[in-house]
Amino acid sequence: MWKRVMVATVMTLAMASAAAAQAERPWSVSFSAGTAPSVSGIYHEGGSGTVLNLPTRVEERDYSDVYNGGFAMKLGLGYAFSPKAEWIGAFTYARADAEELSVGNVAGLDLRSQFADYRDWGLEGGIRWHFAPDAAVNPYIAAVAGARWVEAMPATFSVPAAGVVLADVPFYDDSVVATVGGDFGLQFRLAPAVRLGVEAGLRWTGDLADVDGLAGTGLENLNDSSSRWTLPIMGTLTFRF
Question: pTM here?
Answer without folding.
Answer: 0.86
